[in-house]
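> call design_seq(struct)
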């Protein structure tokens, strides 16, 4: 009976958890209420944890302190999406509690689990229950209670899983979004998959093939997209996100937390030894930034008006929230775990030969050719809905770019965080990186059209951002599963039309879809429309679709481009 964990055991537990999470990635992804080929929680958590596995495989460790520190740092750099960020915070707290220890017994490890929960809750100033936070908190408390009663380490983890399973089942009742969909929380399910695998590793068993108990077959994560009437925010309307390089690694951010909480809400601060990232809703974003500059140097900031977002949603347009969901293609092979890559510190950065360069993210041979050959990007990172690139992928593309300042176009909401995390890593090599927060590929194209090397860097970034935000993006894809959603009775395989992320409807034929889509586009009085057709669309069919659009908008300039993109039959840029 194992009653302590040393460095080797902890390493094996993480490797086992990575394998289990990868095996259950698609099941976790399917916990999604929106019927598009989507669902990113499993992918985000899996790729986040795999980043730690990559680092663990490079080194050997003599203490659990060193192994846990390696995992925490790797997760912070590799975290993707809210679920990945929370996962990184849980392990960051574990690392802090294990500092200075060679091994950990029941009391030490259960205390570390609870410190991880504390770290996550402190980062989310007003945490919502019925999420991974709830599941991890109750599971960790059960482990600590068992340890306090003198239980061995395995028994502590068994108790944690038993209570965690019950907590996961109850997330349906705690979270209104989950209750409406009748599902459990995806992040909570992912946490229990990890915990069960760690226990299996400690026992010397193989990683489990099935998801943790309490999972559900019905999809749904703690988010929902709806065209119903929404409340228009009247206070704290600016969604403000920014990253700051710390003045020193041991700087105390508690006064900043108190100040930001006093001028806003929805505050989240995550940090490592070098940077901290802030998310806050406030009416005075300038004050938030000014106060934060007392603690270091601003790296990047993004401010959006949520009142305008809510008004747009009521009009059937995309609610430009700080979060979103991009499409995960159900039925395609789940991405394989990344193979170990070279240490970022050993990357060879190309000598600068010009002032500015651009790295963009896209998928499809046609889109890659457009960005490289027609728009003048320096590098394309292959990625999108089914293959989110890591921070290291983006960093290596930056390293290959022979420019003093490199602009990065993520072209996907779920990739912006990974791109931003490359900023301080590139700065260590004296390379300045500016992330332009494009959320769709058409926005990236528009941003490149506004790229003017004769301006200074800040103005270039502002121009590219403004150009991107003037683009409306329509997407045509398919329904991944049957669902009644927002008054629509949707059947798997039907065509789905989305405009700026909002579902317009489900259709059995493309002509009907385009008729409805054109009605929606008409609200924008378009002057320029570009139809990018995907890998599953014939050129003649794309030309026919473009003619339908021209017939509805005879005064608009309509162009057709072979994008070759996966997931979406059509991506349509409207300006």
């Amino acid at each position: 009976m194992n009653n302590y964990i040393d460095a080797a055991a902890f390493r094996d537990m993480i490797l086992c958890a990575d394998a289990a999470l990868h095996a259950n990635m698609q099941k976790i992804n399917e916990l999604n209420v929106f019927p598009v080929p989507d669902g990113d929680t499993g992918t985000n958590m899996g790729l986040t944890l795999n980043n730690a596995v990559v680092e663990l495989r490079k080194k050997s460790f003599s203490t659990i302190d060193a192994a846990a520190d390696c995992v925490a740092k790797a997760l912070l750099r590799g975290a993707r999406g809210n679920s990945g960020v929370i996962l990184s915070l849980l392990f960051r707290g574990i690392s802090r509690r294990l500092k200075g220890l060679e091994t950990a017994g029941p009391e030490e490890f259960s205390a570390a689990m609870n410190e991880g929960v504390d770290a996550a809750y402190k980062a989310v100033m007003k945490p919502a229950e019925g999420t991974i936070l709830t599941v991890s908190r109750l599971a960790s408390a059960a482990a600590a209670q068992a340890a306090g009663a003198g239980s061995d380490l395995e028994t502590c983890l068994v108790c944690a899983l038993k209570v965690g399973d019950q907590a996961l089942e109850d997330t349906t009742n705690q979270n209104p979004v989950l209750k409406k969909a009748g599902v459990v929380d995806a992040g909570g399910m992912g946490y229990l998959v990890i915990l069960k695998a760690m226990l299996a590793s400690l026992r010397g068993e193989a990683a489990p093939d099935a998801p943790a108990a309490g999972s559900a077959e019905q999809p749904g994560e703690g988010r929902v997209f709806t065209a119903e009437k929404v409340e228009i925010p009247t206070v704290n309307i600016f969604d403000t996100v920014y990253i700051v390089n710390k003045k020193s690694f041991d700087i105390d951010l508690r006064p900043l937390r108190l100040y930001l909480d006093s001028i806003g809400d929805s505050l989240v601060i995550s940090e490592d030894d070098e940077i901290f990232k802030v998310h806050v809703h406030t009416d005075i974003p300038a004050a938030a930034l000014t106060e934060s500059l007392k603690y270091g140097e601003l790296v990047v900031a993004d401010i959006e008006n949520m009142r305008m977002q809510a008004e747009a949603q009521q009009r059937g347009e995309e609610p430009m929230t700080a979060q979103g969901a991009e499409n995960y293609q159900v039925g395609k092979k789940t991405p394989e775990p990344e193979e170990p890559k070279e240490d970022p510190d050993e990357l060879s950065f190309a000598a600068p030969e010009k002032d500015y360069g651009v790295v963009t993210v896209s998928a499809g041979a046609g889109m890659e050719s457009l960005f490289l050959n027609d728009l003048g990007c320096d590098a394309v990172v292959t990625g999108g809905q089914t293959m989110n690139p890591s921070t290291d992928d983006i960093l290596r593309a930056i390293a290959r770019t022979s420019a003093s300042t490199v602009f990065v176009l993520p072209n996907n909401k779920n990739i912006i965080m990974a791109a931003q995390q490359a900023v301080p890593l590139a700065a260590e090599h004296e390379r300045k990186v500016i992330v332009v927060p494009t959320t769709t590929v058409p926005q990236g194209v528009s941003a490149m059209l506004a790229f003017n090397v004769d301006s200074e860097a800040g103005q270039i970034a502002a121009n590219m951002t403004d150009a991107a935000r003037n683009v409306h993006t329509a997407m045509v894809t398919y329904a991944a599963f049957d669902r009644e959603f927002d008054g629509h009775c949707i059947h798997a395989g039907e065509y789905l039309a989305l405009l700026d992320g909002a579902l317009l409807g489900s259709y059995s034929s493309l002509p009907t879809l385009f008729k409805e889509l054109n009605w929606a586009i008409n609200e924008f009085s378009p002057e320029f429309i570009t139809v990018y057709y995907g890998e599953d669309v014939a050129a003649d069919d794309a030309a026919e679709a473009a003619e339908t659009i021209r017939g509805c908008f005879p005064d608009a300039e309509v162009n057709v481009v072979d994008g070759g993109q996966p997931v979406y039959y059509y991506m349509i840029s409207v300006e």
